[in-house]
Amino acid sequence: MNFRKRVAAELPQFQVTPMIDVVFLLLCFFITTAVFSQWENEVDIVLPTAQSGKLPDRLPGEVVVNVSRDGTVTINSNVLRTDDLINRLTRLARLFPGQPIIVRADRESAYQHVMTVVDACKQADIWNISFATGDADAKP
User: Fold this and answer.
1) Is the pTM of this model over 0.70?
2) Which of 36, 80, 117 is nearest to 132 (CA)?
3) Which domains does the chain have, with CATH numbers?
C-alpha cells in the first residue's frame, strides 16, 4: 500500500527574468554598434555622385577611410598622417588578410589626396578597396 499523498504535478512557469536579461543585452549590443558606425563616417564629407552607384551590403569589419576637402585622412575620428596610415593599414593587413577598405573622399578634395590613400593601401598590400559615392538623385 502506498500511504504517500499524491502531489499534483506543477505546471511549468514562464521565467521572465532570463528573457529580460537577454533583451537588455541585445539592446546594449545594438546601441553600441550604432554608435561605432556613426564614428566611422565623417559628417562634413560630401560624396561625389554617380549614376551607376548603388548602396552595397556592408561587410563585417570594413574600415572606412575618410578624406576631407583639405586632404586630412581620418579613420574612426582619428586624424592620421601618411606614415601613420601606412603603419595602421600594414598592421591591419597582417592581422586580417583581405580586409575590405572603403575610401570616402569629399567631392572637393584633390585627386592627389585620394591617390595618397590608395598608395598607402598598396604599400600595406591591401587590394580590397571600394570608393563611396552618393546617390545622384539626392540633393546635396
Assistant:
1) no
2) 117
3) 39-135 (3.30.420.270)
